[in-house]
Amino acid sequence: MNFDAYAHRAVDLVNAPLGDLDDLRRLLGEEWMRDEATERDVAVFRRAQKRLREIFQLGTAQHDADAVAALNALLEAHPVQPRISGHDAADWHMHVASRGSSVSAEYLAGAVWGLAVWLCEYGSARFGVCADERCGNVYLDTSSNCCRRFCSERCATRSHVAAHRARKRAADALTPVG
Ligand SMILES: [Zn+2]
Ligand SMILES: [Zn+2]
Fold first, then answer.
1. How many angstroms separate the CA atoms of 144 and 33, rounded?
2. Which is the most buried residue in 20, 111, 155, 178, by most CB within 10 A?
3. What whole-number distance in Å separates Cα of residue 153 and Cα of residue 161?
4. 96 C-alpha to center of ligand 2: Å?
5. Ligand 1 centroid vs 93 CA: distance in angstroms?
C-alpha cells in the first residue's frame, strides 16, 4: 500500500474548506465517495480536520510524544480493515474500511493510518504548518535538511516579497529627507 498517498489524504483534509457538502465532495477522490457522501460525513470530517490539525501543530512544535498519543487516539477511532473492492468487475483495488462503511470511515481510516506510518518513517518534526499566518495550511516536510517553512512556493514567495518591502521601508525611514 502506498502510505505516502494516504498520508497526503490527511494533509488534503486539513487544508480543505468544509463549509458544506459540495466542499467535501471536492475533497474526495473516488467517484463512489463523492456520490455517497452525506451531511453526516461533513460533521465527521470537520471533527477529524480539527484533530488532525492539532497533530500537525504538536509535531511542528516538537511535542513528539503528544503527537504520537493524539495519532494513536485517532487510529483507535478510525480502525483500518483492509478489503479488496471493485466498483466494476475489472477494477480490483484495496479499500481500508469494512464493507458498507460510510465515506468518512473509509477516507479517515486511510488518512490516519497513512499519517501514522509517515510519522514512524520520518518523525513528527516533519509535520509542518505554513509560516504565513494568513495561510495556515499544513504540509509534510520532505526537504533534505528538514527546513521547509511554507506550504507552497506561492506562500514562500509572498512572504519573501513582504519581508523585502518591510526592510526597504525601514531603510527608507532611516534615510534623512532633503
Ligand atoms: Zn474503491
Ligand atoms: Zn501557505
1. 35
2. 111
3. 12
4. 30
5. 6
pTM for this predicted structure: 0.90
Phi-psi region of 70 (alpha: psi -120 to 50; beta: other; left: phi over 0): alpha
Q: Which ligand is nearest to the CA of 110?
A: 1
pLDDT band at 100 (very low <50, low <70, confident <90, very high): confident
Which residues fall within 8 angstroms of residue 156, CB to CB, at 6 or more apart?
149, 150
* SS3 state of residue 82: coil
In the predicted structure, residue 23 carries a pLDDT above the cut 80: yes
Cell representation of residue 77: 477511532
Report the separation in Å between the CA atom of 23 and the middle of ligand 2, taken as the mean of its atom positions.
Answer: 19
Q: What is the CA(24)–ligand 1 centre distance, in A?
A: 17
Ligand 1 centroid–CA 136 distance in Å is 31
- For cell 477529524, what's the residue? 48
% the chain with pLDDT above 70? 98
